[in-house]
Amino acid sequence: MVSDEEYRSICNLLYKEARFADNAQYDDWESLLTDDMEYWVPINREDPNPATQLSLLYDNRSRVSTRIRMLKTGVRHAQVPPSPMTRLISNIEVESLNESEYKVCSAFMLGELQIQSTKDLHWWIGRTEHIFRRVDETLRIARKRVDLINSQEAVPSLAFLI
Amino acid sequence: MSVQNAIDYSTIVKDGIINSRVYKDEKIFEDEIRKIFHNGWSFVAHDSEIPNPGDYVRRSIGREPYLVIRNRDGEVNVISNKCTHRGTLLCQEERGNVRGAITCWYHGWVFGLNGDLKSVPYGAGSKDLDHKCLPKATVGVYKGFVFATLNPNPVDFMDYLGEGASLIDRAVESSPVGKIRLNAGWAKFLYKTNWKLQCENNIDGYHVNYVHASLARSIESRYNEAVLAGEDELKTTAVDWGNGHSELFLAAGFSSDLEWLGYSDKKPMKPFAKAYCDQLREAYGDNRASRIIHDGPPHALIFPNLFLAETNIVYYEVDQVGVTVQRHTPMLLEGVSDEMNTRIIRLCEAALGPSSFFLPDDGVITERQDLAFDGGPMEIDLRRGMGREDRNGMGVMESHVTDEVTNRAFWSRYKEVMVA
């Protein structure tokens, strides 16, 4: 069980992360991460093992930094300009893993305007599993796994922060 | 098609000048489906995807649904995935095993692994059952790469493949036992462009500085040679291997071993990478192994739809005139450590696919091309380097990496096929 206060601070972090990602506030988004953060979007829905299976992305912390640096160059064409986006987060379930970590499961719907070329409005839908860790009294994101309902189908550019 | 309505490809595809109508015209697209994908050879699968009898993967020839399936004798068949009764898709899953026979869930018709009709419920009332086997494509297999055509009398498979065979040789020799396997799963990237814009892009060595500027400004990679060097300093080349097959020979610009695996003077090899080099030396001897360790697998397009993308295998599915699906998977190697193959999977995620560091930028730039063509036809100029390309020691056309010799190779083959 987590206390109401813990639950509220976890929701605050979820919503803050969503806002930073939606608004292409790349530095602010990165500031929420732990030094060993892992960012993962699997493809295979039955056996997503990253050691043997291809993912859409499987970033260690250093690769996340590269991703952010690219987005900040202003010439990451796939996100120039950044996609106008809004994501709704719901069905939040929290499990306390140990003294400092929580597993946070949620569902999302993300509307993205593909403004860089086709101007299609695309819906990204799926579930997120976060690991939040308290580091020096601050709650940070240690892991983010995003399972898209259509990860095995043909998807358009996913160069933004999902 | 009547003579009046025939499309005159000689005016659309000229030497190095392409009318953009070729990317937008529905009639041309239908013509391509028939002449290139139905009558000619295209890549459909790798036999490592279906190791056991009854294993299948769903693939398309043009847009026709087919199954690539292994029969009881271990042979690879490519058979229609449409029931010959009323056309329902027989297999809906992307891959699986049919356990000895394929049963249609509409009326219970049962087909064997060679496409033969085995039984129908209440058969006495059915007509012409002798002619209801599943149509079979003609199949050619080279080192596990499965190609197919709906033409019962196609050009000889090895004649079509030509020097493409040596490109495949150079891909599979990355394995110390000469075998690859594609079982890490496929990613599918949706492009709102004509398929040919993707073929052009992946063998274009001229765009790196601009399309991939964000990556060059963010990390050091093996593509930096192209990004930082002046025109005369670039050592990499563009090669026309004939039959529409072409290559960007990136290895000419590599300054250290296993650069293609992400290693360099500044990033020394990990133990598994050193062990991999030792395995290659033991398997192939020092000379050949040194070349493989330095060069890595090729960056080459095999006409019309297979892209040997260094440590990845890519192919294109044509969907609509303006919609293309790129499928890609890491080229896993037999006879190497699990660590080595995991490294190849991570490279694949970095390079290809909708959230990689390269392809989303290629995607958006080519989508902008496709959108711009809506305004009306224009002449695309692919003449760069024309006149300075030369036949190399092997007798193939080779030129500066930024020269459009590779794109001209594609279009010259395209024209041959389309006017036939």
From TrEMBL, chain A:
Q: Which GO terms describe its biological process?
A: 3-phenylpropionate catabolic process
Keyword Oxidoreductase assigned to the entry: answer is yes
Q: Among its keywords, does the record have Oxidoreductase?
A: yes
Q: Which UniProt keywords apply?
A: Dioxygenase, Oxidoreductase
One GO MF term on file is: dioxygenase activity
Question: Signal peptide location in the record?
Answer: none
Show the PANTHER family listed in the entry: BLR3401 PROTEIN
Q: What does the similarity note say? A: Belongs to the bacterial ring-hydroxylating dioxygenase beta subunit family.
Protein name, entry field: Ring-hydroxylating dioxygenase subunit beta
From TrEMBL, chain B:
| Record key words, sorted | 2Fe-2S, Iron, Iron-sulfur, Metal-binding, Oxidoreductase
Q: Which GO terms describe its molecular function?
A: 2 iron, 2 sulfur cluster binding; iron ion binding; oxidoreductase activity
Q: Does the keyword Metal-binding apply?
A: yes
Q: Where is the Rieske domain?
A: 41-148
What family does the Swiss-Prot or TrEMBL record give for this protein?
Belongs to the bacterial ring-hydroxylating dioxygenase alpha subunit family.
Q: What is this protein called?
A: Ring-hydroxylating oxygenase subunit alpha
